[in-house]
Give the backbone structure.
Amino acid sequence: MKIHLSQSAGFCDGVKRAYEMINTLDMENVRKPIYILGSLVHNPEVVKKIEEKGILKITLEELVAAKEGDVGTLIITAHGIGPDVFAIAKKKNIKVIDTTCPKVIKVQRLAQVFYQRGYSVILVGDKKHSEVNGIYEWGGGKAQIVSDRAELANLKISSDAKIAVLSQTTQDEDFFNEVASFVKSQAPQAEVLSTICHATHDRQAEIKKLAGEFEAVVVIGSPISANSTRLFEISKTLNPKTFFVENASEIKLADFANIESIAVMAGASTPDWIIQDVMDLLFSSFEL
Ligand code: SF4
């Protein structure tokens, strides 16, 4: 059996940075209680480790309802957030630790600048994802979000308007290009900026290659992780023997009967220890 671990598997630079920022917090001297708005990354094991440090989860509704002193410190996750949260924190005298990935900040600023310059922003991304909500809010809450082909079919474009097309950093490149081509065909003057980050680009390029070269593919990630789910979907389209697992306990060895080669990929929110468990299981279960 040939078992190959993808070069780009696991935490991306943005997630590593955010995780480091939290792990190196001087907990004695941080204003308490400490809350994190949402999940640092979409991975339950990482979330649990953060909770064990004494950092509690808070929702936007709870933050809005909190009185001064209820929240000492607020951690913003790598996915970023809209400008209103910073204003709320300031008003309630909450200290903010902002772990937003610099690549997400870049998209937020682009959305803001295009909005301020009178552009209609088209944002290609998952409507339910916190990164997309944050970018949307930096864009004045006016962007048209395109999440899928049904929404692309309903997209209203004015041929003489100032239009800018941006993407969620973890967006599927093929879908982004499809939206960009359609917008350009309707409004050739549109500004198209692919803001898909390099970590996502490299992973998507690699999974396409691995899906073609290996008989089976294992994608490790949480079903609530947008980038992991996307990697799974891309691979599954090219290679039906693609399996999506959250951790080693979900591996079914029978799936690999009569298979000679397996590639392992992991989303940007999957920690090293989960990848290691999966590799250990595969290496110990098959003759190499
Ligand atoms: S996937 Fe890209 S944009 Fe998102 S946190 Fe990682 S490096 Fe940053």
